[in-house]
Amino acid sequence: MYSPIPEDWHEANRARWDERVPIHVASAFYDLASFRAGKDALRDFERAEVGDVTGRSLLHLQCHFGLDTLSWARHGASRVVGLDFSEPAVDTARSLAAELGLGPDRAAFVAADVYDAVEAVPDRAYDIVYTGGGALCWLPDIDRWAETAAALVAPGGFVYVSEFHPIADSLDDETGGRVVHDYFVRDPWVDTTPGTYTDADAPTVHNRSVEWLHPVGEVVTALAKAGLRIEFLHEHDATLFPRYAELERHEDGYHRFPAGRPRIPLMYSVKASRPA
Q1: Which of 48, 116, 200, 233 could make a disulfide contact with 195, Cβ separation 3.0–4.6 Å?
Q2: In the structure, what pLDDT confidence band is assigned to residue 1 with cuts at 50, 70 and 90?
């Protein structure tokens, strides 16, 4: 028997994210000043694996306040659309797009739940449907997510997922060297930790969240069941923040385990295409 999903999971998560938008906007983690000056928000492996986006349309599901979305526009995507359930995040994304001189014809943002994306976004077929790190853990139903993403891919296009590896949530926070949580757990995880990943000491009120761990096999299988062809599954030995105390920050901005220590995957990426 699985634990029931709290009835207020969606409202609790949205309130948490709404409150954290201004904290993230002001943070060194997102460094908006550098982004405005031209710094790329995307990871190097994402750019390499997605490839040239020049002249292609791209939909970013769960886009937060749009830095990755707008970065794809900067790389030449003909039109980008970002979707997020947080209205403050979407408002911020729209303001940033206007600052960069990207009108709605180049960069549009929609406030809606990801499961409602087919009805909410302005187009019905995108060359690329993209989702970045830290998105899938907020969704209870990965099959429904994959079906939604697949329904929005144009023939010959693909879904690209860049995510934190779920094995990381099975290990202890101090060393990342001991398995302390069940990798295959299906129960929702309710957290009440204040602050946020950009500022652990930030004063916050809406601290309750409901999250889910989705094993990599579950994500890949859901995409295949939705009618997409899996092109690759890549695992990466680096992550974007100091998930464990023993991780070291490298010059490229990634966090890795010290040299000589056995490595584990900390992120993964999947490309799944729709036949032309």
Answers
A1: 200
A2: very low
